[in-house]
Structure prediction request, 1001 residues.
Amino acid sequence: MTRRAQGPPPMAVRLLEWTAGPGARSDAVIGDLHEEFTRCAERSATRANVWYWVQALLLSCRFAAQAGRSTARPHGRARRARKNGDSTVRTIGIEIRYAFRALVKRPGITALIVLTLALGLGANATIFAMIDALVIHPFPFPNADRIAFVYETAPSSAFKQESVSPANFLDWRKQATAFESLVALDWWDASVVGRDEPESLQGFRVSADFFTTLGVRPILGRGFMPDEEVPGHQRVAVLGQAVWQRRFGGDPGIVGKTVLIDREPYEVIGIAPLGFDFPNGTQVWSPLALTPEQSANRTSHYLSVIGRLRDGRRLTDARAEMSLIGDRLRQQYPEANKDRGIRATTLAQGMLDEGLGPVLSLWQASALFVLLIGCANVASLLLTRGAERHRDIAVRLAMGASRGRIVRELLLESALLGILAVPGAMLAAWVGLQVLRGAMPAKIIRFLPGWNSLTIDVRLLAVTGALALVAAALFGLVPAWQAARPRLVDTLKEGGRSSTSGGGRQRLRRALVVAEITLALPLLVASGMGATGAYRFLNGPQGYDPDGVLSMHTVLPDARYADATARRNFVTAVVDRLRGITGVQIAAAVNIRPSHAGNVRRTIEIEGQPIVDANRRPDADFRAATTGLFDVLRIPLLKGRDFTTADRESTQPVAIVSQSLARRHWPDVDPIGRRLRVGSGPWLTVIGVSGDVVQDWFVSRDYPTLYVPYLQNPTGNVAVVLRATGDPAALASQARAAVRAVDTAQPVFDVMTMREALKERTVGLRFIGGVMAVFGGLALLLAIVGIYSVMAYFVTQRTHEIGVRMALGATPGDVLRLTVSQTGRLTIIGVVLGIVMSILLARLIEAGLIGSASSDGRMIACVAVLLALAALAAGYIPARRAAGIDPIAALRE
Amino acid sequence: MSDLYLGEFEQIVLLAILRLGEHAYAIPIRDEIATRAGRHVARGALYTALDRLEQKRFLRSRMSEPLAERGGRSRRYFTLTAMGLAALRESRHTLLQLWSGLEGQLES
Prediction:
């Protein structure tokens, strides 16, 4: 750090002033420290700051201790201090010392409480760190809140946010005044050829002022110039740090050199700063040069648009202005912009995964539940301790101590407990984040902006500290209040005989047990939902056979494969080669394989079924497949025939439809021989009906699907699949080689078995389920400990009573029944309330995770029974002890 | 005589102040002890000792003008009182008495 420190950290100075109190002496001490700080800061400002903090903490401990020592007994001392007009700070210092001593006197309970709180607070800190990194500050550049995401809207579209057509974008750029600059981004699958195998990288073609708009400056070289937006001048690229290090060895002289991207020479003009990979983990940026005909295109919508707000203008201004521009463009181009509007939103809302918010809120809510359960435990422990100090407090009250003062002291103890738990919580959060980081696959991290900045910082510490105090107020208030209002005379009269404590306190403790069960049950149900969901997705029926299949991807770049024949030839050659490999039963290619993250869906028209509402055209998943696809994936062909090599570009256009499509559109007739078309393309004759496939468990299970021959529809996106006679993974390198043999510069990626692909597709859900399972486990553990401690306390309290009962003829069995039935009653109430909570939570999860997880009554019932058994087991141990009480010993006590 | 008794650390602090003369405030005192006696004293311990020695009237302190390099705070300069000097003299005398004649046994 080069920043020169002006003076010591003000917070630390204030701490010192506060603990030292006013006076010339403390002034001199703080002055000394300041002088030494200045000396130290000349060498390193950071080190000086750390040094100052350490010294300030050490010295303030000493000051606090002195404040305490200068008084004989805490109470007299405090009163005297006040009388002498000393600062109240000192009084509080003494009270803190007193509270501290009270905690140290019972190290076992204190440790248990601190541990419980540390777990609860740690869970919250972990999730908060994620929310902070992923939702609050997800973007790796300054002032991200001044960047807006601008998109089109169309009522007919399935998407809330529509991409923007180039001509519209150019008009926006000309007309909008609320933005300093508007920048268009166009997705680019860039394949980079270097020394090694060609590699497919995430790229984006961007307007020239992309870097200046985001306020990011390349660490080497420069960003783009306006004249590089002109076609013919756009062969320049800025590379990301990662690819620069990995492929070019961090060569500092790279600027000015030429690299081959999509087989075209690009001049490297800059290197992006470390950590900058906006958007979506992009590693190569190049100027978006729109040709005259692209610039006039108002009907293809494929650009994303972001803009920096002009100083002094707010997002609402931009929104208003853009909606005006939208009206104008609609009037000007009624054909192309029919029903189209423009909307501006924050970058976070525009770019972040919609599912992220609900999932993280669910986690944060679960973490808060865990903390609440922890608080219930701590409250019940404090009640127990309060009961032990009952007489002590009664005596003090009788001697004239004020109730407020005792409540304050007890609350101070709670606050101290909360603060003691904070370091443990930070440690737990650190461990939690390490685990999360290790569990998250790189593929997903790319789409989680901010993931790499996940860390523990001062803000997290502050939030955790604040939460600790809130928790302390929660668990401390009731016991403190209870403790400070004993019925004086009764308590003093009891003369130390241990008898059942007051009814109110008993009820409170029972309520806490019920609350713990009520809170734990929904968490367990949620984790169960995640686990069963993930299991079903992985192992449930997929509509095809994922075993024994290897798949890989390639994207044919427009630059080289603009010609349809070239694409046909490439795919045919690759499939033929693969079929020649020993160990390959059969191979095929398709534009999108099942469980692929992307999808292609097209509107369709059925012959003889006129479209009623132009905005609600039927649609279907669109698949361009070579022959053999149904054999490789073992998708059953229910009717008609498969594609053959005779279905070529020159022959009649044909299609195979899925059963769901056939049922939806030809419910009563044989679909074979019927015709349909994609958009306004040529009519396709149906030649077969296939079984349904789970494309994606989250959004499209058994969605109507349309298959057409690849030769008739050669797409650029190609997934190659092959069925192996043995282990499919063993064929990976041969499969790669087959593609390379056809085209050396064509990168292949995502080489994996279909099983792996399935696993990868469900990783998000498994991740969510895993985190929920941790929360569920914590909740269960805390609830069991809580029930155990409460029941154990009851038994201790009632030892005398139980002794009397047994002396009067109760058998150990009676006593066991008595105690267990008490646990049982509380458990039943808790479970019933918990089931209600679970059903509510399950609804919420189903709404948040679009059909990915479904609750079912059986699962809730199983979890409820499990929890009830655990609760009874926790209550059984103390009950056994109660049954074993020796009546004579109990009465003699 | 018992009033004048000095612990070892007190002696060290007093001697350091005596050496520093007019410039004795906490920071140079600590430095002096470090260079001369090779001991690194905790700040807190030094402040406590200084306070105690002043309470015993072996030391007297005065505040300087506020100084900018100290964030506008004063220095607290210490000087030995006559009693402080007497106490030092007394300890030296006592120790020398006890040392005399033992040099042969302890030097080896």
